[in-house]
Write a structure and sequence with these properties.
This protein has a domain of 323 residues: Rossmann fold (3-Layer(aba) Sandwich), CATH 3.40.50.1820. With 513 residues, it is of the alpha/beta class.
Length: 513
């Protein structure tokens, strides 16, 4: 498994506790089972205290010269098995603007990734009406909890529904761990129940006629095309737009264990962007030479390998020039620099470690003399963000909404990837969702797609998505499939300028005809 996917696995409610069995009972029809046909999995109920009933509150924010009044709702939507028995509770948070005509107003469903991440990052960091500061150099876990009006929110042009998959936030399975793995912790089951939840929410809220959008970050970006295909082809729910934030779309192209040049082609522009940003020279124009080199001479020389020593020397010279890395270090790796070697070696002499989520961020390295760095002893500044996000979300739900489950809140559940199908370390390198993206584009010639990345994200490199999109045949208006890259890393929206640029690009997906 590529080192970057190890980082990815650990990085990164509206709802209705109504006990409804009719439409929700159908939610389980799509769930796969490894049991023989005709034999239902017998869930063994876990002893969990009941989650609180749905809670609503009126709030408002100031956005420019406007005041936006809205209702925030939190609760749990049950997932039922084939017999109508509740086997899980999915907690979400929704924000619905007051004074709007619901049938005509867009509604956006948002998920993060991991798998093992709640939706707190998109909610309180990117597109929700309130925002807490995290994800930038200098943020600390002990900083005061302070939610402010979010100038980058999407609430003025869409209602928002943030979904926490089973095992994240307060969402939980109510069956044995083995049954939960079969029902929720496989790629197919994950896509099926999350898609069904969206369908049921729309039905129960009388929003099926609303324009519908889906946004996902990281592994949530992987989910988006697959969920869109499931919603349209299996559940009869058409989507108007898809937004992918720092997405993981194609596992095979990230594998480092074979001779494919793709992993190194994807990584080189990101390493170059980090070098340029530290010099204050990062622009889209400045990235053109390295992208051209990665597509051409770099790929050719990588494929020549040891058979051509001159090719090796050309790689060392060009990679060192682009990235600012020591030529001896580049030669030792044959120009094949992965994220783990970069984050531990780039500033080893200064006693610093680089963030895999944003190569611009650094922190003191607690193990500066460790000769063999591994993901287990590589600390990342994102762990600071996890503390901030967790504390803020628990405080928001508990103090602001008086919704206080007797349970632990997981902004990141680091154990969940270990429970994933066949073990996430081997499985993530075999899956992709680019083919589902092609299907959705072919099925609906009006659907719009926005893929966004940060230049200095080592986990999900923007150039990988750029290479993938270049292989999608033209279908309808070429402008409906866009890639936008911003300053910043995996959570580029933590930078104010990138947050506002992201908002503007997303708004165009909703408003442009």
């Amino acid at each position: 498994m590529p080192a970057r996917l190890v980082h990815l696995a650990f990085t990164l409610g509206f709802v209705l506790n109504l006990g409804i069995t009719g439409v929700l009972g159908r939610a389980q029809e799509a769930l796969p089972s490894s049991e023989p046909k005709g034999k239902a999995i017998e869930p063994h109920a876990m002893e969990w205290p009941s989650l609180p009933t749905e809670t609503r509150a009126k709030q408002s924010i100031t956005l420019g010269a406007r005041t936006l009044s809205y209702t925030v709702t939190v609760g749990a939507l049950p997932i039922l098995d084939e017999r109508g028995k509740k086997i899980a509770e999915v907690v979400c948070t929704s924000y619905v603007l007051e004074g709007s005509h619901a049938q005509n107003r867009p509604v956006t469903f948002a998920l993060n990734g991991g798998p093992g991440s709640s939706s707190v990052w998109l909610n309180l960091g990117a597109i929700g009406p309130k925002r807490v500061q995290f994800g930038t150099q200098g943020d600390n876990p002990s900083d005061p909890i302070l939610l402010k009006d979010n100038p980058g929110t999407w609430l003025d042009f869409t209602d928002l529904v943030f979904i926490d998959p089973v095992g994240t936030g307060y969402s939980r399975a109510l069956v044995s761990e083995e049954d939960a793995k079969k029902r929720f912790f496989t790629v197919k089951a994950d896509i099926a129940y999350l898609s069904r939840i969206i369908c049921d929410w729309l039905h129960l809220r009388d929003r099926m006629a609303s324009p519908k959008y889906l946004v996902g970050e990281s592994y949530g970006g992987f989910r988006v095309p697959r969920m869109a295909a499931t919603l349209e082809l299996e559940l009869g729910v058409g989507l108007s737009g898809l937004i992918m934030v720092s997405p993981f779309l194609d596992g095979p192209s990230w594998q480092e264990g074979n001779f494919s040049p793709l992993p190194w082609m994807s990584m080189l522009p990101t390493l170059t962007a980090a070098h340029l940003e530290r010099q204050g020279k990062l622009t889209a124009e400045a990235m053109v030479p390295v992208e051209a080199y990665a597509r051409s001479e770099f790929a050719v020389d990588l494929l020549k390998g040891w058979s051509d020593r001159e090719a090796v020397e050309r790689i060392v010279r060009r990679v060192s020039d682009f990235t600012g890395l020591d030529p001896a270090f580049v030669r030792r790796h044959g120009g094949r620099i992965n994220d783990l070697s970069y984050v531990t070696e780039r500033f080893r002499n200064q006693g610093l470690i680089v963030s895999g989520n944003d190569a611009e961020r650094t922190m003191p390295n607690p193990f500066p003399w460790s000769p063999n760095p591994s993901p287990e002893n590589v600390l990342d500044p994102i762990f600071r963000d996890i503390v901030i996000a967790t504390s803020t979300m628990v405080d928001f739900l508990g103090r602001t909404l008086a919704w206080k489950p007797k349970a632990r809140y997981y902004s990141i559940n680091s154990e969940l990837p270990k429970k994933w199908e066949n073990g996430s370390e081997t499985y993530f390198s075999t899956i992709e969702s680019g083919s589902d993206l092609k299907k959705v584009l072919a099925l609906d010639l009006k659907v719009k797609v926005l893929i966004t990345h940060g230049y200095t994200d080592l986990n999900c490199c923007y150039f990988n998505s750029k290479l993938l999109l270049s292989q999608i045949p033209p279908m309808g208006d070429p402008k409906r499939l866009q890639l936008k890259v911003y300053a910043g890393g995996h959570m580029f929206y933590t930078r104010p300028e990138s947050l506002m640029a992201f908002r503007a690009d997303a708004k165009a997906i909703y408003t442009d005809n």
